[in-house]
Each structure stands twice: as structure tokens, then as C-alpha cells.
Amino acid sequence: MKTSKKILMILLCTMVIGLYGCKEKNNEAVYNNQEIKKETSQKSKEEKNTSNNNSKDLKKDTEDTAKKNIKNHQNNEEAFPQNIPLKHNNEDICILMYHSIDYEKNNNLRMPKEKFKEQMKYIKDQGYTTLTLNQLYDFLEKNKPIPKKSVVITLDDGYVDNYTNAYPVLKEYGINATIFVITDCIDRDNSYLNSKQIRELQANGIDIQSHTTNHQELHRVPYKNQLQTLKQSKEVLEKLLDKKITCIAYPCGKYNEDTIKAAKEAGYTMAFATGGRLGKKSDGIYSIKRIGVYANNGMNILQAYLK
To answer: How many whole angstroms separate alpha carbon 264 and alpha carbon 201?
Structure first.
């Protein structure tokens, strides 16, 4: 009887130990699974953070490169060639106005690329300095001297061929130029520049400025509407390019006293009209005259303008 009790006690102890051991193993397995999940989750978060950081770093590097290019261009624009004749703002300045750089029969606003290239080559070969708008402003408002043989190149409206046709020519000859963009056309009309092209142009020394939102002739609308389109186009470009937009070209060169008042109120520091003659300080900084260059103009016309 005693032997039977001993055997029974041994069996009970064995069962209890077995059950306790299974419980410990189950707890250990659950713990291990939780640790694995925790490690996996932590690793996933780390990989995600690394990916996000890499994307941010890449975006920052791209933005920094673009800003560096703009800064370098601004620094370089201050230096003129040494030992050349200079002039002050009591003399005139030739400001040329182009539009589309492409061919279209019987459309004088569209200048063929070959003709545009011929003109830019002439400007380069004859030793003309192509001014930035910053340099033009300093010349007109601060009387900072510029080379006697200076010219300003502008293109109105922001056609896509300014990127595909004009831009390569300007790069080839190292010519400064400004494109006045109609902001409502950006990313909406394939005939005009898109955001990516505009950013590339600005980052590579082709200045982008405002030509209003919709190319409405400003002198035909009330002051309130003029101010609205001038402000909106400025804001769009400033957001797109992360820079101050300081210049406006009036659509068709039309303006009145309200236009000048609105341009000042909107925050512009310089504005351009047309006029078909050389620009001068006496025109006023908000009504600078430009000379239109058209497809039917021969080289002799350009040469006469420059002289």
C-alpha cells in the first residue's frame, strides 16, 4: 500500500512538473514572438525614417544646387570686363523684346530659331554685354555705370519654344535674358512653359518675371482688377521659384496711371512697356521703353537699334 502511494505521488509530481514546463515554454514562445514583432516593427520604422530622410536630403540637395546656381549667377553678373568704355544713366539703353522663337508663315511675332541665333551671335561677336534686370535697375536708379556696348534681351509671354529653341542659343553664346511669363498658362497649355522648364531656366541664369495672369490689357480694366492680376501672377511665380519677383512687363505694352500705382502696390520695383525706341531714365522706372524685334526685321534693323 505504501509502495502504491509512493508511485501515485511520483506520477502526480511528474504531471505537475510537465504542466509547469509547458506553461513556461508557452510563455517563452509568446515572449519571443512579441520580441520578434517589436524588432520587426522597429526595423520597419527605421527603414521608413531612413527612406524619408534620404528623400528629404535628395530634395534639399536639389534645392540647394538650384539656389547655388542662382547665387553664383547673381555674383557673376556684378563683374564687367575690365578696360572697356562705360556709360552712365544720362545715356540711353537698348532693350530688345522678342516673343516666340519658332517659324509660322505670316506671323511676325514668331521668329525662326535660325534668325534668332544669327542675331544672338552678332551681339556676342560684336562684344555687347547683355545686362540682367538687376544691372539695368542699378544703372537706371543708382547710376551704376555699364559698358557702352550694352543691351537687354527680353522675351514676352513664355512660349514653350523659349525653352526648346531660344534657351540652347542663349546658353551657347552665354547671353543673359529675361522671360516674362503669363502665369495662367503654366502647366495648362502645352504651347507655353511648364513648371519644370521654368525652374530649370531660372536655375541656369535665364531670369523669369511676370507678364500678369492672363495677358489682359491693363489700361482697359479698373484699378482693382489690375492690382489683382499683378499680385496673383507675382505670388504664383514666387511660390514656384522661391525668389522675389520684382519686374512686370505690361501686356501689349499698355498701361495708365492706375497701372503704375498698382505695380507699386503689388511690390514690383521695375516695369516695362513697349514704345519702339531706346530706354532712358526719364521714362520712369515703371514705364521703361523697349524695342520689338520681329521676324521680318533684317540684320540691318538690329544693327541700327544697337547703335
So the answer is: 26
Are 39 and 109 in a shared domain? Answer: no
58, 76, 94 - which closes a domain: 76
Q: Quick: pLDDT tens for 87-132.
A: 999 999 999 999 999 999 999 999 999 999 999 999 999 999 999 9
pLDDT at 28 over 80: no
Rounded Cα–Cα distance for residues 34 and 80 (Å): 70
**Which three cell numbers mark 244?**
522675389
Please, what is the end-to-end C-alpha distance for the chain in angstroms?
A: 133
**What are φ and ψ of residue 305, in 5° steps?**
-60, -45
In this structure, are 8 and 146 located in the same domain?
no
pTM: 0.77
Instruction: With residue 292 as reference, give the H or E element that holds it.
Output: strand 288-292
Domain extent for 66: 1-76
Backbone dihedral region of 178: left (phi > 0), alpha (psi from -120 to 50 degrees) or beta? beta
pLDDT tens digit sequence for 177-190: 999 999 999 999 99
